């Protein structure tokens, strides 16, 4: 009988490895830029055409490669970063697996030009689908230039899975931002379709953040720094008043390597406890420096997941460092860093085992406070809060008419809707009474029992239906702004704005482009009152930006959902008049789905009379 197991050819093995290493054009950008970092470059230029599907080019002024190394770098598991197994636990370079160049060359046409300072001539190497096509000596400046053309040209099925150009560009921008943030001492340039999107000089981290994300970030940066014998933390966190309604720019770096870690994110969010409104997310860029022997980065080829040997202590230190920063900026009371920081730490959600370390970390200031002083400080933090809320409500414009467009319902109009079909019940406006509870819920009393309605979610549903109607009919009314406002958004967000600009016009936004880079908001959808156009558009862009799917699919639903979520925030806790409550109930039960909000949350719950009786007996 013939043997069944065979050794795969290198070309096929490389394509299999490429499935993990090279998922999309952004993966190529990440690997090539990290190689440039390891080559000690002080200037790195990224050039993109056709969202990386056509050309990805990375040029650096690093150390370059010899003629032999230029050819060897395309072999599987060929690397200059490690020599033995023990080196895996002392890695200080960005790359080490020796898979990237071989994987890229297996699914694209690659041209490499490189030259070392001591060499008279440089080297040119061309590869196509893992096959060497050309290798020769050329004139070349010191450093390396790698050009990747026609990604996935030999695997049409993989190429068809790529998203639209704006989506792929956003992923590329994300990778560029990760590398640029981690290395502010390096000069970067990003050119797409022959237009320079970023030109970042070598600078300090704070200036790099502002250059990447916009001038609006200058006012919200709070420096965060903490040193312990186990780990050092530095970076910036955002002030609570600048938090966004969607998860925006949040970055963790470990030894200058960008990572994703939900456990550490929870540590930061817990430090902001009671400082942020519900559903708000702060900005942060935090760098953790730790001995490589305490971490394992050889978890996944993308190297964005790592393991700590003592994750609970890392959690405690991050939480304490952020709370200390907020305390210094007079946002929360001063904290006692001499207490055991391992108290009140939630278990690792991933279920990973972690040893207990001493949590006896000292504050840089060395100040301690008694429990009574801390309690008094918290009380002072909330002094005048109720007065501020009342003042805010008095400043809000009085609603003299129902917010939503009124329909001519007679008193006998039957509100038969999808919500009632499940129970085959009918009721009309003459049979129910509505009261408001805690300015957040409506209790609807009628002959068969009681219906409880979440006020904010009900508004979300009604607004969503209205925005969807405007998008489909392309007839949204606009409210002119007396003074146009400049929209401060990053280049990455400008790409999204360009893609959804027509839909925003249908909703009622009026935008004007100036100098090819600045957007002015001249009008917002009618009926939004004093809603800030900048904040509203930021919320839409944030939600659309973090959608994993292609925007061309269900784009209207995403935009309408973002709009309704943002617009309904002001009704989360708002006193309603009797007319407003009645209008809300009528329009809810006449909506497309009275049971669920656009986010899939339950809007109302019906309690039958017998259920109420059972509760009391």
Automatic annotation (TrEMBL):
Amino acid composition bias (Polar residues), ranges on this chain: 353-371
Swiss-Prot/TrEMBL keywords: DNA damage, DNA repair, Endonuclease, Hydrolase, Nuclease
Protein name: DNA mismatch repair protein MutL
Region (Disordered): 348-371
Tagged with keyword Signal: no
Domain MutL C-terminal dimerisation: 433-575
Taxonomic superkingdom: Bacteria
Domain DNA mismatch repair protein S5 as annotated: residue spans: 209-327
Transmembrane segments: none
Function, in words: This protein is involved in the repair of mismatches in DNA. It is required for dam-dependent methyl-directed DNA mismatch repair. May act as a 'molecular matchmaker', a protein that promotes the formation of a stable complex between two or more DNA-binding proteins in an ATP-dependent manner without itself being part of a final effector complex.
An MF annotation (GO) of this entry: endonuclease activity
Family under the similarity heading: Belongs to the DNA mismatch repair MutL/HexB family.
Keyword Hydrolase set for record: yes
Record Pfam families: DNA_mis_repair (PF01119), HATPase_c_3 (PF13589), MutL_C (PF08676)
């Amino acid at each position: 009988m013939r043997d069944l197991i065979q050794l795969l050819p290198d070309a096929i093995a490389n394509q299999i490895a490429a499935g993990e290493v090279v998922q999309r054009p952004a993966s190529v950008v990440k690997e090539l830029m990290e190689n440039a970092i390891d080559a000690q470059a002080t200037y790195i230029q990224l050039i993109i055409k056709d969202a990386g599907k056509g050309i990805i080019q990375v040029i650096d002024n690093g150390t370059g490669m010899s003629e032999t190394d230029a050819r060897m770098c395309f072999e599987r598991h060929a690397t200059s970063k490690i020599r033995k197994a023990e080196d895996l636990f002392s890695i200080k370079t960005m790359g080490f697996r020796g898979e990237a160049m071989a994987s890229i060359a297996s699914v694209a046409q690659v041209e490499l030009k490189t030259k070392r300072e001591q060499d008279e001539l440089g080297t040119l190497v061309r590869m196509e689908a893992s096959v060497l096509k050309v290798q020769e000596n050329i004139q070349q400046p010191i450093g390396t230039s790698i050009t990747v053309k026609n990604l996935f040209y030999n695997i049409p099925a993989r190429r068809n899975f790529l998203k639209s150009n704006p989506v792929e560009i956003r992923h590329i921008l994300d990778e560029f931002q990760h590398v640029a943030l981690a290395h502010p001492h390096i000069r970067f340039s990003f050119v797409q379709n022959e237009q320079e999107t970023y030109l970042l000089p070598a600078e300090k981290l704070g200036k790099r953040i502002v250059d990447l994300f916009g001038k609006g970030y200058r006012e919200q940066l709070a420096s965060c720094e903490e040193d312990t014998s186990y780990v050092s933390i530095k970076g910036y966190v955002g002030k609570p008043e600048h938090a966004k309604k969607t998860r925006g720019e949040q970055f963790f770096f470990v030894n200058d390597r960008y990572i994703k870690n939900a456990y550490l994110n929870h540590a930061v969010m817990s430090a902001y406890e009671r400082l942020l409104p519900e559903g708000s997310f702060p900005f942060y860029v935090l760098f953790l420096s730790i001995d490589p022997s305490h971490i394992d980065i050889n978890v996944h080829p993308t190297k964005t997941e790592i393991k700590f040997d003592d994750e609970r202590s890392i959690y405690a230190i991050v939480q304490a460092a952020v709370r200390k920063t907020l305390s210094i900026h007079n946002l929360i009371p001063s904290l006692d860093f001499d207490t055991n920081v391992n108290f009140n730490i939630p278990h690792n959600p991933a279920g990973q085992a972690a040893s207990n370390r001493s949590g006896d970390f000292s504050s840089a200031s060395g100040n301690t406070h008694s429990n009574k002083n801390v309690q008094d400080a918290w009380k002072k933090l909330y002094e005048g809060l109720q007065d501020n809320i009342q003042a805010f409500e008095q400043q809000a414009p009085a609603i003299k008419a129902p917010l939503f467009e009124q329909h001519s319902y007679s008193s006998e109009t039957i509100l038969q809707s999808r919500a009632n079909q499940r129970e085959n019940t009918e009721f009309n406006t003459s049979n129910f009474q509505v009261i408001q509870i805690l300015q957040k819920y409506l209790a609807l009393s009628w002959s068969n029992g009681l219906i409880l309605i979440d006020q904010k979610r009900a508004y979300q549903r009604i607004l969503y239906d209205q925005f969807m109607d405007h998008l489909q009919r392309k007839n949204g009314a606009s409210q002119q702004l007396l003074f146009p406002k400049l929209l401060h958004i990053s280049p990455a967000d400008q790409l999204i704005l360009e893609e959804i600009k027509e839909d925003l016009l249908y909703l009622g936004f009026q935008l004007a482009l100036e100098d090819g880079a600045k957007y002015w908001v001249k009008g917002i959808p009618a009926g939004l009152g004093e809603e800030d156009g900048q904040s509203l558009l930021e919320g839409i862009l944030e939600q659309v930006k973090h959608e994993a799917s292609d925007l061309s699919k269900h784009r209207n639903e995403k935009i309408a959902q973002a709009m309704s979520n943002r617009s309904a925030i002001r009704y989360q806790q708002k006193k309603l008049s009797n007319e407003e409550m009645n209008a809300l109930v009528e329009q809810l039960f006449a909506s497309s789905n009275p049971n669920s909000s656009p986010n899939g949350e339950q809007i109302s719950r019906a309690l039958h009379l017998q259920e109420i009786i059972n509760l009391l007996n």
